[in-house]
Amino acid sequence: MNQILYNKDDYKSNINYNLNSEIVDKEHNKSFFKFQFIASSLLVVFVITGYFLYSYNRNKKENISKMLIDNYSISRLYNNEQPITTYEESGTMFSVIGIIEIPKINISYPILSESNDELLKIAPCRISGPMPNEDGNLCIAGHNYDNYKFFSKISSLENGDEIIIYDLYNNKLSYYVFNNYEVLENNLSPLETSDNNSKQITLITCNNLNSNRIIIEAKP
Q1: Contact call for residues 96 and 85 (beta carbons, < 8 A)
Q2: How many Å apart are CA 3 and CA 5, to the nearest integer?
Q3: CATH no. for residue 132?
Q4: What is the count of structural domains for the chain?
Q5: Percent helix, percent strand, percent coil in the chain, to nearest 5
Q6: Does 91 map to a domain?
Q7: Which of 104, 79, 170 is nearest to 133 (CA)?
Q8: For residue 37, is it within any domain?
Q9: What CA–CA distance (Å, rounded) separates 38 from 53?
Q10: Residues 163-187 pLDDT 10s
Q11: pTM score of the predicted model
Q12: Which domain holds residue 101?
């Protein structure tokens, strides 16, 4: 009889122990999932905040680009001389040396005289070659943001598509695409000039899928 009572008590103790263990496990799981939820929420907030800050800064830079075009247009309206206005961005002095328009992809930007990471966030930049609409190979680099801005869509240009360049005297010259290809990022051959007695423009941007450079060549 005592043995039976002992076994019953031992059984009850085991049940209580198991129940307590389950309660502890459940509380532990709740704490873990709570921590995981908070961490995930903070990560989402961090990513969203970072994206909006990035977008804000990018739009701010593009607003500078619009201001430069407006200043250029006003200068040309009231000044028949060559309008050279110098600006400063992140310690770099630069000027607007022309305007590039590409009707097919609906873009219009100033062409900046200098090139660095900060200036490329504002507008396309001359990286080598002559002034706009002069003889030689004018090479212009622009960012690819995988949207509809800057040079993001130049890969869609085909032979015969028009690229319009305005120079410092507001002369307009239409160039027509004759080549669209890619090179490795360290290939500088597109910057070379094959004929110093003819006009050419070369547009350069990144292919974000493979790190190659997209090259568009055009002549009048």
Answers
A1: yes
A2: 5
A3: 2.40.260.10
A4: 1
A5: 40, 30, 30
A6: yes
A7: 170
A8: no
A9: 22
A10: 999 998 889 999 999 999 999 999 9
A11: 0.70
A12: 82-219
